[in-house]
Amino acid sequence: MKNTNSFITHKNTIEQLSLKSNEPGWFLEYRMEALKAADELEPSQIERLDYTSWNLWEIPNVQIEDLSKDEIQNQIQSSSTEDIMILDFKQVLKEQEELFKKIYNKTTFIQFKDLFSAFTMAFLTDGLFVYIPKNLQVKEPLELSFIQNNKTENTVNRQVLIYAEPHSSVEIIEKYSSIENDQEASANIHV
Q1: CB atoms within 10 A of CB 86
Q2: Nearest alpha carbon to residue 42 among 113, 94, 133
Q3: pLDDT tens readout for residues 78-92
Q4: Is the dihedral of CA 35, 159, 110, 46 positive or negative?
Q5: pTM (predicted TM-score)
């Protein structure tokens, strides 16, 4: 983003994204730190992969569609989810903010060492939090299915935070797919 976009230009977009998601001040501060970092970082060079034509750095439209708990639960397939907390970021910030903040502060989501991480955090459109309590041994795999409608004009910048407490275990299967495959769309997903 260096030399093409500036912090001042997108500050209002960041504030609107945060406001629409009812985020607390500490979360907005992370977004702003990420935006400042994104202004200074260059895209990573990946050997044998040229992604320069991919539309990864598209600023999302502030018209965010809310993902309800029912929609998320329909994307989870496991017979033993009753003890597992599965919430979108908007819900977890409302219902379990202190627990979420404690865990979130340990993540790489707030380490803005590369443009991908900084950009995704700054322009985050949604997130999913999966919490496995202490001493819980989940026997069957937990399947997370993310389906993107390519007809929507909104860029997806998503974080998926999976946290297992000590002496717990879970096998997670993630599936990413899209509908309306003839349409182009972009998604940045940081797990």
Answers
A1: 21
A2: 113
A3: 444 568 999 999 999
A4: negative
A5: 0.79
